[in-house]
Structures are given as structure tokens and as C-alpha cells.
């Protein structure tokens, strides 16, 4: 489990993932896949 703050980034090693906003305000998530894998 990781807590991300404003300006943080993350990456995954190719396994299935999920996320949840446990805060009291709506979260904004910008998801970028680079290079494209589709």
C-alpha cells in the first residue's frame, strides 16, 4: 500500500492493479501509458 501526494508518480511491473480513494475529497487521476501497449 502506498499513499500518493500531489505531484507524485508511480509505475507498475505488469501485474493486475486496483486503487481506491480513501480521502475525504474527490481524487483526480491522470493515467498515461507510455509507450502505448494497445
List the defining traits of the structure above.
globular, little secondary structure
Indicate the topology.
Layout: no helix or strand
Report the sheet with the most strands, covering strand number, pairing sense and barrel closure.
none
Query: Which strand-content bin applies to the residues?
Result: under 5%
Structural domain tally: 1
Helix vs. strand class: little secondary structure
Enumerate how many helices there are, as a single number: 0
Q: Rg from C-alpha positions?
A: 12 Å
Q: N-to-C terminal Cα separation, in Å?
A: 27 Å
Q: Report the strand count.
A: 0
**Poorly predicted tracts of residues:** none
Mean pLDDT: 79
Protein described:
By secondary structure, this protein is mostly loops. The chain has one domain (1-38). It has no helices and no strands. The radius of gyration is 12 Å and the shape is globular. The termini are far apart. The model has no long low-confidence stretch (mean pLDDT 79).
Amino acid at each position: 500500500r502506498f499513499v500518493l501526494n500531489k505531484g507524485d508518480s508511480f509505475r507498475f511491473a505488469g501485474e493486475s492493479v486496483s486503487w481506491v480513494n480513501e480521502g475525504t475529497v474527490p481524487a483526480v487521476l491522470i493515467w498515461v501509458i507510455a509507450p502505448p501497449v494497445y
